Target: Lipoprotein
Amino acid sequence: MHSKTALAGTALALILLAACSGPQQDPVPTAAEAPPAVSDAGGASDAGGASASDSGGATPESAAHRYAVTPPAQPVELTDDCTGEGMHRTALGESADPALPERSGAGLDVVLSGVDAQGRAELTAAVDGGDPAPIEPAAVGDTIMIEDWTISVTSICADEVEFDLVN
Model:
């Protein structure tokens, strides 16, 4: 039991170190970048067929935008990524439980969409009820910054992922 606690403590320390010392990335497009792409597409597509793609205009923008994943400074060495440890849990197609706390009056919904062939979690994030945006495939120990939240993946099982809220 002590080795699991020590491993979890070491992993958390490494994650915090990586979050504090790693390069800063801004995964969110600036307001100046996103609206012109949507409005240019809308203005250029007055024809009937192209207008159908405009109704799904948020989908291509969401698909192009992915939240970045920051790997830990030191690789996490586990015999099994399915540790069953984490403050929040999401199963296939389900929102995180317990729900993440609101930040600046907005909520965050993290949902597991699958686990890839390399055993990495395929997650999506929706801020304040918006369209879900994909997160880069994440491994145990990876940190993900989503606007005002930072989460750290702590367990990846076949049908569920657990993570901690770092800040």
